[in-house]
Amino acid sequence: MKVLNLRKSSEKSTLAVLISLAALLLLVLKSTSKTHPFYELLLLAFSVISFVVVFLMLSSKKKLTICRHGIFYSSAFGKVHIEPNKTKLIKQYSKHGFNCVIIIGHNYFIFAPFYYLTSKQKQRLKRYDYNVLHWLQVTRKRSKFQGF
Questions:
Q1: CB atoms < 10 A from the CB of 120, how many?
Q2: CA distances (Å), 83 to each of 10, 64, 88, 106, 136, in order?
């Protein structure tokens, strides 16, 4: 059975850096007066970094697997299973060392920060234009086990 177990990278270090930066900004905010010209800018930066940290922690997945039975992931809100025929696209994005995988389907959107596809997994999906359903259909046809 073909299974894509997506891997996680640098979650703890990224969150640690962002939390440290937010703490540093909070320290600077406490030491500056409200009349200082950069006070509002520092407050805005602290708010944005805090929002990003909360967003990344809430959208983080514990495990993300794609197989012929669909997409399985577990997060802080429980375990989820999505049928393979509802999946349209899976794409990996990587900027400045931050990896994320985005899965788009009928009536859902999955944002999985810190996950990445290995080069072998990318090659598999690239063959089918990142269409997971097409990849799953082809692997199902090749499989000895025809149950879906």
A1: 9
A2: 29, 14, 11, 10, 11
Each residue's pLDDT, cut to its tens digit, for the chain (148 residues) gives 366 777 777 778 888 888 888 888 888 888 888 888 888 888 888 899 889 888 888 887 888 887 767 788 888 788 888 887 777 777 888 888 788 888 888 888 888 888 887 777 777 766 665 556 566 656 555 554 444 3
Q: Is the separation of the CB atoms in 65 and 71 below 8 Å?
A: yes
DSSP letter string, 24-88: HHHHHHHHS-TTSTTHHHHHHHHHHHHHHHHHHHHH-EEEEEEETTEEEEEETTEEEEE-GGGEE
Would the pTM count as exceeding 0.70? no
**Residues 94/107, Cβ–Cβ less than 8 Å:** no
Q: How do strand 108-113 and strand 87-95 relate by DSSP bridges? A: unpaired
- Contact assessment for residue 147 and residue 1, using Cβ atoms and an 8 Å cutoff: no
